[in-house]
Design goal:
single chain, about 450 residues, alpha/beta, Urease, subunit C, domain 1, TIM Barrel, 2 domains, eight-stranded mixed β-sheet, four-stranded parallel β-sheet, 11 helices, 15 strands, globular, disordered N terminus
């Protein structure tokens, strides 16, 4: 069986104010310990949840060969085949978690547009530290939805997949397409005319992005923009989707206001990020049932970025209640909601705090635990385009595994009790969850 990966990183919740600016760059780069590629090995708890069904199963183990799941079988069958199995009583083995919306390039210790200027080496060290913390906490895949002209997340993705860096498998957008002075215009994805759309998308594709991100509305964190207002007409969004589709790239639309959400859905965007339905009276005051029905018909996923800090109801009590109602309306029309945090854009929210966000999503959307778990595993994998690779425990799928204490199908807090993480067949030492998340 493989050696464990280890890290000397500090939990960000334990850092005092004077050390915040250095927290992301103080972690030594871990060394990969590759498995014995000639043999199989197995891992088992008393329970197994496969990422698909509502119930756990007993007496099964996951057999791993290199970076793939070779089979699911009983412990006795594994023994008959001579497969060494490590068994963990009172634990459940399940797929690793997936976060549909992160920003690897940015630190949670600073506001989004007040990030410190770092050298290339410092930025890379900070990103590697975040990636390591994520996978240590059971996040084995994520979608990065935007950064600057450095395309640093794309480079990180490549090194993770090559085994040079420890972290979750990433799919990446590049510079989000925005209008002049629009949301996140500081990152360089500005288009001044419809004629500039295809050259901008060509640039993203040439740098190796997996997704195209468009800012369909203003944002909450860019001064001078209005999240209620659409930034592009429907015609522009149709052109963005057409150009992206010609390269085989799906489109994720940042959209808070109802007009922008509706235009993005009509244009064919694959996922709607935030989907806040901001109308005349604030959060979720503009929910449109016709648009929800079109989402359902087209198979659109909603990535609501319901993160762990939402227990504090930052949108206000009335906004929180309206958002809960909106989630229910989406679910009744079979529009899938996926686990997503917006980590990197939210001050004070660690990149590794997805488990708390899964619980928030379940509470707000009145989801049972299995549905919430699927929102962070198989459903999320389908949403971000890797559903044929990971997100479930099935033969031939990636050996991206999470072992937790307890039964997560009955108690989502089990996600905050990681005992072991396996990322592409490599063991990773799990960490305790961030302090602010531990009481949720």
């Amino acid at each position: 069986m493989e050696q464990k990966l280890s890290s000397t990183s500090d939990d960000p919740a334990d850092l005092d104010e004077k050390r915040l600016s250095l927290a992301d760059t103080s972690v030594a780069r871990p060394q990969l310990n590759l498995p014995d590629t000639m043999g199989m090995w197995g891992i088992a708890g008393d329970l197994l949840w496969d990422g698909i069904n509502d119930e756990v199963r007993e007496g099964l183990c996951v057999v791993v060969l290199r970076d793939r799941i070779a089979s699911l079988c009983t412990l006795s069958e594994a023994c008959r085949r001579g497969v060494p199995v490590q068994h963990f009583p009172a634990c459940c083995i399940m797929p690793g978690m997936i976060d549909a919306h992160v920003h690897m390039e940015f630190s949670e210790h600073f506001p989004l547009h007040e990030q410190p200027k770092l050298t290339c080496h410092e930025l890379r060290a900070a990103m590697e530290a975040r990636a390591l913390r994520m996978v240590q906490h059971g996040i084995t895949a994520a979608r990065d939805l935007g950064g600057t002209s450095t395309f640093a997340a794309v480079d990180l993705r490549n090194d993770i997949m090559a085994g040079r860096v420890v972290g979750p498998r990433l799919v990446c957008a590049g510079q989000p397409i925005t209008c002049p002075n629009g949301h996140c215009h500081q990152w360089g994805g500005i288009v001044n005319s419809m004629a500039e759309i295809r050259p901008m998308i060509n640039k993203q594709v040439e740098r190796g992005v997996d997704w195209i991100k468009v800012m369909a509305t203003g944002g909450l964190r860019t001064p001078g923009t209005n999240p209620q207002k659409a930034q592009f007409s429907e015609d522009w969004l149709f052109e963005i989707v057409a150009a992206s589709t010609s390269h085989g790239r799906p489109v994720a639309a940042h959209a808070h206001g109802t007009a922008g959400i509706t235009a993005a859905v009509r244009a064919g965007c694959h996922t709607i990020e935030h989907c806040s339905w901001i109308g005349q009276f604030g959060w979720c005051s503009g929910v449109d049932d016709a648009t929800i029905q079109e989402m359902s018909k087209k198979g659109v996923y909603v990535s609501p970025t319901a993160h762990a800090k939402w227990t504090r109801k930052p949108m206000g009590e009335a906004g929180y209640e309206r958002m809960c109602t909106a989630f229910g309306r989406l679910r009744r029309q079979n529009v899938p909601l996926v686990a997503s945090s917006d980590a990197g854009a939210i001050p004070g929210l660690p990149h590794e705090a997805l488990a708390g966000g899964v619980n928030v999503l379940a509470t707000m959307a009145s989801m049972g635990a299995p549905e919430a778990l699927r929102a962070a595993t198989s459903c999320c994998a389908n949403a971000i385009g890797i559903g044929d690779v990971c997100g479930q425990l099935s033969e031939g799928y990636a050996a991206d595994l999470l072992l937790v204490s307890g039964n997560p199908c009955r108690d989502l807090k089990a996600l905050r009790r990681p005992r072991m993480v396996v990322s592409r067949g490599n063991l990773v030492d799990p960490c305790v969850m961030p302090h602010f998340d531990s009481t949720m």
